[in-house]
Amino acid sequence: MDMVKLVKGDRVIERRKVDYENNINIWNLRGWKLDDGKPKAQPKPTPKPEPKAEKPKEEPKKDSEWVKEEAPKKTETKKAE
């Protein structure tokens, strides 16, 4: 009993050769192709980018340069009489 490998994308299945030959059109319509037995090409690894030079950090502001943030103004609501 001979077996054939069918490939669809990254999936591989094995079926009997007799079943495949009787239903070649159906397998092709569903997107299955005979496995050619060649190993799939491995994707080339992408080179890592070189680390960028770090920017010097800004020095924190001194107390004399610090400005107090204004608090949001409170609005008074009028009560319904």
What does this structure look like?
By secondary structure, this protein is an alpha+beta fold. The chain has a domain at 3-34. Helix content is 15%, strand content 17%. The chain is built from two helices and three strands. It has helices at residues 17-22, 24-29; strands at 3-8, 11-16, 33-34. The protein has a three-stranded antiparallel sheet with strand order 2-1-3.
Taking the sheet with the most strands, its summary is: 3 strands, antiparallel
Which strand order do you get reading across the main beta sheet? 2-1-3
The total count of strands amounts to 3
- Overall form: elongated
The quaternary state of the protein chains shown equals single chain
Total of helices:
2
Terminal residue distance: 95 Å
The topology string of helices and strands comes to EEHHE
Helical residue percent? 10-25%
Strand content: 15-25%
Q: What is the CA-atom radius of gyration, in angstroms?
A: 35 Å
Quick structural gist:
Helix content is 15%, strand content 17%. With 81 residues, it is α+β, with helices and mostly antiparallel strands. The chain starts with a strand and ends in a 47-residue tail after the last strand.
List the helices and strands and how they pair.
Layout: E1 3-8, E2 11-16, H1 17-22, H2 24-29, E3 33-34
Please supply descriptive tags for the structure shown above.
three-stranded antiparallel beta sheet, 2 helices, alpha+beta
